[in-house]
């Protein structure tokens, strides 16, 4: 192992022990489902909002803790990965059109996994990271690694893989908040890239899907009832098969319409094959445009999401999401917003100190786990900016891939950090490709931010 991590072999006795102990500290009753914007809260929000203008960027605005979800954005991204059975079925499906439909179904299956109240996830600090894994029903494991790779604008980069089924996802979420009057918007830039590594095109490249996100709107922040809406378009494309889907998340009109509606079309080489409609948090139906037959596509009301497993708190590093925000999350769970605000301020103030030190020392921040894509083109909206630093061979056997993943960062209980973990990702990547790695790049100073 390049990083010297202790890697339990999948399927070994240590692996089964691991899965039974993969729990984190318990949290109080689910306050994420409680709308806590009472008269006092509305007054606080009004005080903040009175200083804003429509269209203003909200990324540098500090909002009160009563509208915060009890998880970091890095962890919230895993909501989209909690129906692995669908993506596994997609990978196992031979027909490319049906395979594409299952990919669309999989991507639609995660949006309903969210707090019932209007809550925003905690903004990750620069260098914050979160890892998790899943014990899948088919006996395989899935792995997730994420890191906050930029702070202004915020960029959350992530990697997900099911090695034994040859499924890989790379992505970066770039939420851009805007004030719109009686609403705020989270414009969700960035893409996810899904690959089926063992399904090759004529040139030997893996079958690749590009997936974009709909935007999110919090309505009623000045008057009316607070309501979270999804809006605009979710686009899924697979260039090698010519398949594409454009799903519109339709926001409710001022007078008419309904909440949570979607409508979209699935095409092959610009020929419409299917229409999808319904509600993204209830039932969705699909209509075959050739046969005119309509059938149930997805019913989220009976879905059973498979939540990720996380290493125990005592094994986590200071910049891992659950440990970093533990005191804030605990206070939120107890609805002690004064304590939550105090703890949140301590974290944010420390980031300012680290940022100031970087300026004084004339050094740049570099992620530890992700590297910038060498040929990244900002104008190409179908390209990710960051990928995991380690070159995980697409054609290697699954156990080799698992070992490579587990050497990046601790994911399973029992794994330990090493000194090499603190080396910036681009240096570790260089050491892999050149044999002249410099250990002098290691820096004992904690990960910086802001």
From TrEMBL:
<keyword id="KW-0446">Lipid-binding</keyword>
<dbReference type="InterPro" id="IPR000648">
    <property type="entry name" value="Oxysterol-bd"/>
</dbReference>
<keyword id="KW-0445">Lipid transport</keyword>
<dbReference type="InterPro" id="IPR037239">
    <property type="entry name" value="OSBP_sf"/>
</dbReference>
<dbReference type="GO" id="GO:0070273">
    <property type="term" value="F:phosphatidylinositol-4-phosphate binding"/>
</dbReference>
<dbReference type="GO" id="GO:0034727">
    <property type="term" value="P:piecemeal microautophagy of the nucleus"/>
</dbReference>
<feature type="compositionally biased region" description="Low complexity">
    <location>
        <begin position="433"/>
        <end position="442"/>
    </location>
</feature>
<keyword id="KW-0813">Transport</keyword>
<dbReference type="Pfam" id="PF01237">
    <property type="entry name" value="Oxysterol_BP"/>
</dbReference>
<dbReference type="GO" id="GO:0016020">
    <property type="term" value="C:membrane"/>
</dbReference>
<dbReference type="GO" id="GO:0032541">
    <property type="term" value="C:cortical endoplasmic reticulum"/>
</dbReference>
<comment type="similarity">
    <text>Belongs to the OSBP family.</text>
</comment>
<dbReference type="GO" id="GO:0006887">
    <property type="term" value="P:exocytosis"/>
</dbReference>
<dbReference type="GO" id="GO:0120015">
    <property type="term" value="F:sterol transfer activity"/>
</dbReference>
<feature type="region of interest" description="Disordered">
    <location>
        <begin position="1"/>
        <end position="36"/>
    </location>
</feature>
<feature type="region of interest" description="Disordered">
    <location>
        <begin position="429"/>
        <end position="450"/>
    </location>
</feature>
<dbReference type="GO" id="GO:0001786">
    <property type="term" value="F:phosphatidylserine binding"/>
</dbReference>
<dbReference type="InterPro" id="IPR018494">
    <property type="entry name" value="Oxysterol-bd_CS"/>
</dbReference>
<feature type="compositionally biased region" description="Low complexity">
    <location>
        <begin position="12"/>
        <end position="29"/>
    </location>
</feature>
<dbReference type="GO" id="GO:0006897">
    <property type="term" value="P:endocytosis"/>
</dbReference>
<protein>
    <submittedName>
        <fullName>Oxysterol-binding protein related protein</fullName>
    </submittedName>
</protein>
<dbReference type="GO" id="GO:0016125">
    <property type="term" value="P:sterol metabolic process"/>
</dbReference>
<dbReference type="GO" id="GO:0030011">
    <property type="term" value="P:maintenance of cell polarity"/>
</dbReference>
<dbReference type="GO" id="GO:0005548">
    <property type="term" value="F:phospholipid transporter activity"/>
</dbReference>
<dbReference type="GO" id="GO:0005829">
    <property type="term" value="C:cytosol"/>
</dbReference>
<dbReference type="GO" id="GO:0032934">
    <property type="term" value="F:sterol binding"/>
</dbReference>
């Amino acid at each position: 192992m390049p990083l010297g991590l202790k890697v339990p072999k999948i399927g070994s006795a240590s692996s089964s022990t691991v899965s039974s102990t993969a729990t984190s500290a318990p949290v109080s009753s689910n306050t994420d489902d409680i709308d806590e914007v009472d008269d006092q809260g509305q007054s606080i929000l009004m005080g903040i909002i009175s200083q804003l203008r429509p269209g203003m960027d909200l990324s540098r605005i500090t909002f009160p803790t009563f509208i915060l979800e009890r998880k970091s954005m890095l962890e919230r991204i895993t909501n989209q990965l909690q129906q692995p059975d669908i993506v596994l079925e997609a990978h196992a499906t031979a027909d490319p059109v049906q395979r594409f439909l299952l990919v669309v179904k999989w991507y639609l299956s995660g949006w309903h996994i969210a707090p019932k109240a209007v809550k925003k996830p905690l903004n990750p600090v620069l260098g914050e990271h979160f890892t998790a894994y899943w014990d899948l029903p088919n006996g395989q494991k899935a792995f997730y690694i994420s890191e906050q790779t930029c702070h202004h604008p915020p960029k959350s980069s992530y990697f997900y893989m099911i090695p034994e089924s040859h499924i890989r996802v790379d992505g970066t979420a770039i939420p851009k908040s805007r004030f719109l009057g009686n609403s705020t918007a989270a414009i969700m830039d960035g893409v996810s890239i899904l690959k089926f590594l063992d399904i090759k095109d004529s040139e030997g490249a893996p079958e690749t899907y590009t997936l974009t996100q709909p935007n999110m709107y919090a309505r009623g922040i000045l008057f009316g009832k607070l309501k979270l809406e999804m809006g605009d378009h979710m686009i899924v494309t697979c260039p090698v098969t010519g398949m594409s889907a454009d799903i519109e998340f339709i926001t409710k009109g001022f007078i008419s319409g309904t909440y949570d509606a979607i409508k979209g079309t699935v095409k092959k080489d610009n020929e419409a094959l299917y229409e999808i409609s319904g509600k993204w948090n209830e039932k969705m139906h699909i209509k075959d445009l050739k046969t005119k037959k309509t059938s149930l596509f997805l019913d989220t009301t009976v879905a059973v999401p498979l939540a990720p497993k996380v290493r125990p708190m005592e094994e986590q590093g200071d910049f891992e999401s659950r440990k970093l925000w533990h005191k804030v999350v605990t206070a939120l769970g107890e609805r002690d917003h004064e304590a939550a605000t105090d703890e949140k301020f301590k974290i944010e103030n420390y980031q300012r100190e680290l940022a100031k030190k970087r300026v004084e020392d004339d050094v740049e921040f570099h992620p530890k786990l992700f590297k910038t894509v060498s040929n990244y083109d900002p104008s190409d909206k179908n390209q990710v900016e960051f990928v995991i630093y380690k070159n995980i061979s697409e054609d290697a056997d699954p156990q080799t891939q698992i070992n490579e993943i587990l050497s990046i960062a601790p994911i399973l209980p029992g794994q330990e950090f090493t000194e090499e973990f603190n080396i910036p990702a681009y240096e570790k990547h260089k050491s892999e490709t050149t044999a002249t790695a410099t250990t002098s790049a290691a820096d004992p100073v904690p990960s910086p931010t802001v």
